[in-house]
Amino acid sequence: MAFKLVERNTVPVTVKGKIADENGKTEIFDFTLSCKRMGADALQDALKTEDRNIKSFMADVVEGWKGVHDATGAAVDFTAEALDQLLDVPGLAGLAFKSYLEEQGARAKN
């Protein structure tokens, strides 16, 4: 099958993981971020910025989400403040970053 050389501006990024609740019980989660897709040169330049951390990088590329809920189970609207709260959960920005790098580029077919 041929490769279609077309501009792909966004990419869905599924983030999966687990976190302990207040009682130490493991909760499994997954949600999808809608992210800006970057070309190889732009990605390399963005990663070279010395004062940038993973949280700020992800804040720049995430444009929306699905599957993020509050404690009552209601969907949380995507806002910059809500994204900051999500990315402030220890380890979560790193999981999202790893998933972003895996999903936004080409990879081998299984």
Notes on the structure:
The radius of gyration is 15 Å and the shape is globular. Helices cover 35% and strands 25% of the residues. It has 4 helices and 3 strands. With 110 residues, it is α+β, with helices and mostly antiparallel strands. 15% of the residues are buried. The longest helix is centred in the last third of the chain and has 13 residues, at 92-104. Helix 2 packs across helix 4.
SSE run: EEHHEHH
Task: Please report the number of helical segments.
Answer: 4
The whole-number mean of residue pLDDT values reads 89
What is the number of beta strands? Answer: 3
Unreliable runs, pLDDT <50, ≥5 residues? none
SS strand fraction: 15-25%
How far apart the termini lie comes to 15 Å
The radius of gyration over CA amounts to 15 Å
Shape: globular
For the sheet with most strands, the description reads:
3 strands, antiparallel
The class by helix and strand makeup works out as: alpha+beta
Task: Explain briefly what this protein structure is.
It is built from four helices and three strands. It has 110 residues and is an alpha+beta fold.
Characteristic terms for this protein:
single chain, 110 residues, alpha+beta, 3-stranded antiparallel sheet, 35% helix, globular
